[in-house]
Design a protein that fits this description.
By secondary structure, the chain is mainly beta. It has 2 helices and 12 strands; from the N terminus they run αββββββββββββα. The strands form 3 sheets. Strands 1, 3, 4, 7, 8, 9, 10 and 11 form an 8-stranded antiparallel β-sheet that branches. The chain is globular and about 40 Å long. The termini are far apart. The N terminus is likely disordered.
């Protein structure tokens, strides 16, 4: 098979383009494990093109992000923006508004492990350009 370097290094498939309005820019989702009555945890592989990011949102049961490629950002409301790189792990506390996505010049790939036992993701407002481009670390 003739794979490009980026395709051959993917851990999980890129998935389908996300077409809802919960993201700015192009993001893709490959659901790996859907939450069900036996296990209320969902696992999805999310790929963000450079500059793409989620809206502010929260998870009633929290979320864990495992970075598998690229460079991205994670920010909780009222906290400095963090730079994330391949191998980083983040624990998003329950009911804490946050956003995550790619840096301006790099794609970003994460595994999102999301508890669903206390309800679905609550989507909030878009991340402003000022918030996205802030240089606080």
């Amino acid at each position: 098979m003739n794979h490009s370097k980026s395709e051959s290094t993917l851990v999980f498939p890129k998935g389908e383009k996300i077409t809802n309005d919960n993201f700015t820019g192009n993001a893709y989702l490959q659901m790996l494990i859907a939450a069900d009555s036996l296990n209320a945890i969902a696992v999805g592989n999310v790929t963000f093109e450079p500059g793409a990011r989620s809206k502010w949102h929260l998870h009633p049961a929290g979320q864990i992000l495992l970075v598998t490629d690229g460079v991205g950002y994670y920010q909780e409301k009222g906290q400095p923006k963090k730079i994330l790189r391949k191998g980083d792990a983040v624990k998003c506390p329950p009911d804490v508004p946050h956003w995550h996505g790619a840096s301006a010049d790099s794609a970003f790939v994460q595994l999102a492990i999301t508890g669903r036992e206390k309800g679905e993701t609550v989507w909030l407002q878009p991340v402003t350009e000022e918030e996205y481009h802030s240089n606080n670390k």
